[in-house]
Amino acid sequence: MVAVAQHIGSVLQGPVNDAAGRKLSKLRTRTPDVMWDATWPRGDLWVDWRVPKTYGLGIRLWLNGYGLGVGLRPYPDGESGATERAIAAIESRPLPGYEFLAGGRSKAGRDVGFIGGGSGEVFYGRWFDREAVAGLDLRAEILRTASQVAPLFGLFTDVSEPSTVPKSDPTPLEPVVPDDPFADLADELLVERAFLDDVVALLEDKKQVVFYGPPGTGKTYFARKLAEALVAEPERRPVVQFHPSTSYEDFFEGYRPETNANGVMTYSLVRGPLAELAENAHTEPDRRHVMIIDEINRANLPKVLGELLFLFEYRNTPVRTLYRSTPFELSENVWFIGTMNTADRSIALVDAALRRRFHFIPFFPNHGPMAGLLDRWLDREAEPAWVGEIVAQVNDELEKELGGPHLQLGPSHFMKHGLDRESMRRIWEYDIEPFIEDQFFGDPTRIDRFRFESVWARFAEVAAESITADAEAPSADTADPVAEN
């Protein structure tokens, strides 16, 4: 069902934009994950064509076991009174044949059995009972809806472009929902917006988080993109990479030798990246500063951090440091995002005092918020789906063989364009097999099991089915795939 949703969304991307009069700021297609969680599959499907720079404003097709709804999804984001304000705004411009349909945890409207969604969910659309769906010209109904609800976008945002669809009332509209800086980031990173909200909330709580998981799961990329969204200026979001030789003096500050004008060797106190960032944050107390510490667990953390470990928890508390004669304090507006490769060192080896001061956020290919990331990327970039299927199957096997998810294959290895069997073989032989040989050192039987030809022999059937399905799919230029489905 979710595959059908993805198909409908991509095939009608252009026609929906045309019907909605979107010429510059194009609507963006979004579909749900296959699973609600690690255990339960979805019981319905939806497709959104969303307005850029908004959380969820757009056109929605929503299908469940009782029927199908197609209409406007303003998504007021659960703020106090937001649902009521959204309903009042829509009621000021009612559309014939449209009604409020209860969606998610919202009780607003007629209950048609929708599930999922947030507490502020509002859905204003036309409903077709199950018996009517088989004879429905779905493409025509979606495009008709796009044309009818597009003028209502202006009720909820000031970022939508002028529509070429005639409006029933030319009176300027007051926006009631502010621009959301994280909506586009969630789309770019191919994660749920709720996950981004969780990460930011955790940063607000302890001021520091660590992303941990196998290599290639996008931890550093995610950290950099999030830091850019949180802090615009590069000088307020430095990146530091730890390694076994990193010292307290490198990270915070220490005395360094230098020669004076008379050629005499002297020592001066030189600030490291943390001291510089702390100084800047102290002079700009109302501006956020974010430091990314990449590969944080590769250094000897108790030695590198010293008394800074105390300051992570007790902000704005003066502390005597190793080289200063005056107290030093770390202000509340300094946040830290660390990344940790658990294939090198287990999280269990990290000092317990440090673990207590950081929130730890998992990045695993087959579990948690990053599950299905490769599948979503392959779908967005029109690359073959069988690549994701094979990687997911191998990761399941590796998890059983190695007793956990910390040594799985990260999706970034396979986020390449032009994927086919030959390019997959090269990636596997030169990137994956050395990793496999390291994990199963001294066990040639298990190593051979995860070589490319052995993996292909086990899962070629998956690839063959996907290739055949792609080859048999009708072209969007020569057929009406949605109507046929």
Can you walk through the features of this model?
With 485 residues, this protein is α/β, with parallel strands linked by helices. The protein is built from 19 helices and 14 strands. It has helices at 2-11, 13-19, 82-91, 130-133, 138-149, 183-189, 193-206, 219-230, 248-251, 273-283, 301-305, 308-313, 352-357, 373-380, 385-402, 421-439, 444-449, 452-472, 481-484; strands at residues 28-30, 45-50, 58-64, 67-73, 99-102, 110-111, 124-129, 208-213, 239-241, 253-259, 265-271, 289-294, 334-341, 359-362. The strands form 3 sheets. Strands 1-2-3-4-7-5-6 form a 7-stranded mixed beta sheet. A 5-stranded parallel beta sheet has the order 9-12-13-8-14. A hairpin with a 2-residue loop joins strand 3 (58-64) and strand 4 (67-73). Mean pLDDT is 83; it is low at 159-179 and 473-485.
Chart the SSEs and their pairings.
Layout lengths: L1 H10 L1 H7 L8 E3 L14 E6 L7 E7 L2 E7 L8 H10 L7 E4 L7 E2 L12 E6 H4 L4 H12 L33 H7 L3 H14 L1 E6 L5 H12 L8 E3 L6 H4 L1 E7 L5 E7 L1 H11 L5 E6 L6 H5 L2 H6 L20 E8 L10 H6 L1 E4 L10 H8 L4 H18 L18 H19 L4 H6 L2 H21 L8 H4 L1
Parallel strand pairs: 5-6, 8-13, 8-14, 9-12, 12-13
Antiparallel strand pairs: 1-2, 2-3, 3-4, 4-7, 5-7, 10-11
Helix pairs in contact: 2-5, 14-15, 15-18
